[in-house]
Every structure is written in structure tokens, then in C-alpha cells.
């Protein structure tokens, strides 16, 4: 009994008992030549040429059509109506089934031909378009619904799965159902491993390809990988050299047919093309919307983070400035700043005034023989106000004098005393009255006159 690991190889050998090769360089509006290789094929043969990838024309205008070419011999040559630098995939079938001759990888149309008469300049569309639910999404072992408009079909449509560089297969159709807003169709569980590129196409009595095509990558399920639908005969990429032989896969003949598995690009490309109606390019709306929303969300989050850190930095800067601010001493001048800072450095409290000692003035009066002190000089108004003026200057000064307090001006002091011992009661009695200042004109007097009057009254 053969091991299970050998079953896929046996399936590949059985499915590809014969193959084909592209024998010339694909060029715009030039013939493409195919040759059947090996034995086991049953004529008639069919070569199905499908657009692959985006259109190279301006504004992504899709002018490529799916070409369904039939021939009986072991070779065929037909016009390739594809523009330069575009890509295509070839599937060869015979009378026994679809894709029995193998599937090529994506070949590229080379430059060198200036003939562009084989294709138009406007967008083409399929004559029997179809859709899938969910749209633009193939999930491994998950069901999708393939549906179309029944009035547009001629006969019962058939649908096919094509894996570039791998196996192509017919999609079985269970009983057809009609769903509101979804037309006529059927459910199909995708028996293809995640990461594989699959081209879906369909046709009716008018031939394969009139439904256009949709190219997508099979994805894994959100809740995990489901392998329940996979087995040894599940369609996959061919483990070996793909069909088609050697042919260019890049510009100017660069590259050749690839070996190994073909997984396709990271993003799905939806292309609808029809043999009678041309092709139609669609945009993967879900991927674009998701990317835009994700990008906007990332920008908003980044902006909020930058704003948060900026506000936090400004807050700490303001707090630091408040903590390091100096006490403002309104009683000191600019010249005291250095001494004031030194006092703060020593931990002393700020001084809002400078104490000065009281200096006893020099004696300016003489004593009489009877012990009474008499004034030897009449003080002027300015002299009387000298001490007061100096005291005021000390208390209101905002600057300290390094040399100490200024010298005291001489001041004459008049002191009134009693008249001595009280005499006999019969003697004259002296009554001292304070000055009335009646001889001073209102508003014109001076402090000197006031002092003189006081002196006269004293005597």
C-alpha cells in the first residue's frame, strides 16, 4: 500500500500526463504559439488565456479580454491581444476535463511591437458578470456564495478555479438557489490552502471566460486555521516545474517559468474579463477602507501622544520656574542684590530695614550759675527740623550706605523750666501762656517765626 505522502504526486502525474509549452516570445498584438508535449491528451485542446495583475495602461484602463482558443493538433498559434508589460496566465485543457494540461505562471508580454490595433482604449466588461459573498474574500475551508443574474446567462453557468503555476479545477455546483438581492447561485467551501493565489472565472454556452475573472489570495480564518476540507487531492500549487515551459516573466525577457509553489502577492487583485465583452478592473474596497481607517487612527493616536507629552513638559517647566523663583525685596535697590543673594545662601531671613544706633549729639547748651540751663543760640526752623529730617531719611531710604549713618547736625535745644521755688504769696505771680500766634499771617508764616515766638514766650 502506498503511503499517503505519495498521493499528491500521483495525482499530479495523472492530471498532467501531457503538458504544453510556450515556444515564442509573447509580444503585443503578435501571435502566441503553444505546443503540446507528452502523451495522453485527448483532442480537442483548449487554451484559456486570462489577464493577470494590473493593467499597464494609463488610469489602469483594462482592455484585456479572456481568450478561449480551441485547436485539434499538437500546436496552436493565435493573436495575443494584450498590451506590452501586461501579464497573463495560460490554462490548457482537453476533452477529458478542465486544466488537464496544466497551468502556467504569470508570463509577461514583452516590448518590441508597436502594433496596438488588437485592443481598444476603453474599459471592457464581462457579458455575464458574477459576484461572491462575502465580497473579495476567500477563506480556507469557509463557504462563499457565487451568484449571477439568471437573465444574463445562456444555459447553466459553470465556474472554475485557476492556481497560477499549479492546478486548475472545475468548481462543483450543488442545487442552485435564488436569494433576494443576490440573484441565482450556489455555496462553495474553498478547498484551497491559505496563502495560495486563486483566479475565479466562469462561462456558459458561449464559452469559458464570458463571466470575467476575480483574482484573490486564500486567507486563514479569524478563529484559526480550518483544515477539515483539505485532503490529498485538494487543489494546490504544483510541486515542480509549472506548465508552459520556459517563457519570460519579466520585462525584456527577464526571468522564466518558476518552480515550486506559487503563492501570489500579498494583496488580492480583482479582474473581470470576458471573451465576448472584455475585462473589468475592480478595487479591493475592504482592504483600502481598512488601510485608510488604520492609518487615520494611527495618526490620531500619535497626535494625542505628542500633545500629552508637550503639555506635560510645559507643566513641569512652569513648576520648576515657580520653585526656583527668588523672593522679591521691594525695600532694597538693585545694588543690594548681591548681598541679598549671599544672605539667602547663608539661610538668613531677608532684612527689610537696616537698624542704625542712636548717636548722642555733642553738648550745645551751657548751664547758668544758678543751675538753670539756658539756650545759647536760637535755633532756626531748619535746625529744629534737622533731626527729624535725618530720621525720616533713615526710615524711608531704600539703599544702605556702606560707610554707616551720616553725621548728626548740631541742634540747639530750648528747655523751659519752672521759676524756681514758689515765693511769698504777696509777690508777683507769673503765669506763662502758650503762644497765640496771632501776629502770624495765615498761610505766610514760617517755622522760624514759630520757633522765635516760642523762645520769646519762654523768656
Give your account of this protein's structure.
It is a single chain. With 459 residues, the protein is an alpha+beta fold. It has a domain of 279 residues. Helix content is 18%, strand content 25%. The chain contains six helices and 21 strands. Strands 3, 4, 6, 7 and 8 form a five-stranded antiparallel sheet that branches. A hairpin with a 3-residue loop joins strand 18 and strand 19. The termini are far apart.
Distance between the termini: 156 Å
Unreliable segments (pLDDT under 50, ≥5 consecutive)? 1-15, 257-283, 365-402
Secondary structure: helix percent: 10-25%
Q: If helices are DSSP runs of H or I spanning 4 or more residues, what is the number of helices? A: 6
Number of strands: 21
The biggest sheet, with number of strands, parallel, antiparallel or mixed sense and barrel status, is: 5 strands, antiparallel
CA gyration radius, whole angstroms: 57 Å
Mean pLDDT: 76
Structural class, by secondary structure, is alpha+beta
The portion of residues forming beta strands comes to 15-25%
Element pattern in H and E:
HEEEEEEEEEEEEEEEEEEEHHEEHHH
Shape annotation:
rod-shaped
Notable characteristics:
459 residues; alpha+beta; 5-stranded antiparallel β-sheet; 5-stranded mixed β-sheet; 6 helices; 21 strands; 18% helix; rod-shaped; disordered N terminus
List the helices and strands and how they pair.
Blueprint: H1 7-15, E1 18-22, E2 31-38, E3 45-52, E4 67-71, E5 75-79, E6 87-94, E7 97-103, E8 107-108, E9 130-133, E10 138-139, E11 143-148, E12 158-162, E13 168-171, E14 177-179, E15 183-189, E16 197-204, E17 207-219, E18 270-274, E19 278-282, H2 285-323, H3 337-345, E20 366-367, E21 373-374, H4 381-384, H5 386-396, H6 447-458
Parallel strand pairs: 10-17
Antiparallel strand pairs: 1-2, 2-5, 3-4, 3-6, 6-7, 6-8, 9-11, 11-15, 12-13, 12-16, 14-15, 16-17, 18-19, 20-21
Amino acid at each position: 500500500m502506498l503511503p499517503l505522502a505519495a498521493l499528491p504526486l500521483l495525482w499530479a502525474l495523472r492530471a498532467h500526463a501531457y503538458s504544453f509549452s510556450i515556444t515564442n516570445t509573447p509580444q503585443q498584438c503578435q501571435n502566441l504559439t503553444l505546443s503540446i508535449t507528452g502523451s495522453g491528451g485527448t483532442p480537442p485542446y483548449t487554451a484559456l488565456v486570462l489577464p493577470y495583475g494590473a493593467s499597464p495602461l494609463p488610469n489602469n484602463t483594462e482592455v484585456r479580454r479572456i481568450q478561449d482558443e480551441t485547436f485539434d493538433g499538437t500546436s496552436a498559434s493565435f493573436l495575443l491581444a494584450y498590451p506590452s508589460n501586461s501579464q497573463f496566465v495560460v490554462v490548457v485543457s482537453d476533452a477529458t476535463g478542465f486544466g488537464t494540461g496544466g497551468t502556467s505562471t504569470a508570463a509577461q508580454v514583452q516590448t518590441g511591437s508597436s502594433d496596438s490595433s488588437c485592443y481598444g482604449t476603453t474599459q471592457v466588461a464581462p457579458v455575464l458578470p458574477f459576484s461572491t459573498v462575502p465580497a473579495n474574500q476567500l477563506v480556507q475551508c469557509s463557504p462563499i456564495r457565487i451568484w449571477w443574474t439568471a437573465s444574463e446567462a445562456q444555459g447553466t453557468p459553470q465556474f472554475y478555479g485557476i492556481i497560477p503555476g499549479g492546478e486548475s479545477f472545475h468548481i462543483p455546483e450543488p442545487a442552485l438557489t435564488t436569494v433576494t438581492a443576490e440573484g441565482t447561485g450556489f455555496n462553495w467551501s474553498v478547498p484551497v490552502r491559505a496563502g495560495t493565489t486563486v483566479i475565479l472565472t466562469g462561462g456558459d454556452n458561449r464559452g469559458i471566460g464570458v463571466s470575467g475573472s476575480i483574482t484573490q489570495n486564500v486567507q486563514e480564518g479569524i478563529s484559526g486555521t480550518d483544515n477539515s476540507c483539505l485532503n490529498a487531492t485538494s487543489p494546490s500549487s504544483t510541486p515542480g516545474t509549472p506548465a508552459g515551459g520556459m517563457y519570460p516573466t519579466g520585462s525584456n525577457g527577464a526571468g522564466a517559468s518558476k518552480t515550486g509553489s506559487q503563492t501570489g502577492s500579498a494583496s488580492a487583485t480583482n479582474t473581470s474579463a470576458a471573451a465576448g465583452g472584455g475585462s473589468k478592473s475592480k478595487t479591493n474596497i475592504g482592504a483600502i477602507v481598512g488601510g485608510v481607517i488604520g492609518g487615520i487612527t494611527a495618526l490620531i493616536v500619535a497626535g494625542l501622544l505628542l500633545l500629552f507629552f508637550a503639555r506635560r513638559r510645559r507643566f513641569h517647566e512652569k513648576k520648576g520656574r515657580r520653585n526656583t523663583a527668588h523672593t522679591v525685596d521691594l525695600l532694597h535697590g538693585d545694588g543690594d542684590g548681591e548681598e541679598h543673594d549671599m544672605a539667602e545662601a547663608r539661610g538668613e531671613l531677608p532684612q527689610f530695614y537696616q537698624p542704625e544706633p542712636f548717636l548722642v549729639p555733642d553738648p550745645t547748651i551751657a548751664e547758668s550759675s544758678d543751675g538753670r540751663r539756658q539756650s545759647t543760640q536760637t535755633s532756626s526752623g531748619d535746625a529744629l527740623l534737622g533731626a527729624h529730617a535725618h530720621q525720616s531719611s533713615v526710615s524711608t531710604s531704600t539703599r544702605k550706605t556702606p560707610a554707616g549713618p551720616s553725621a548728626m547736625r548740631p541742634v540747639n535745644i530750648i528747655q523751659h523750666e519752672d521759676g524756681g521755688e514758689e515765693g511769698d504769696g504777696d509777690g508777683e505771680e507769673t503765669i506763662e501762656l502758650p503762644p497765640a500766634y496771632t501776629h502770624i499771617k495765615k498761610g505766610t508764616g514760617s517755622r522760624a517765626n514759630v520757633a522765635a515766638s516760642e523762645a520769646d514766650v519762654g523768656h
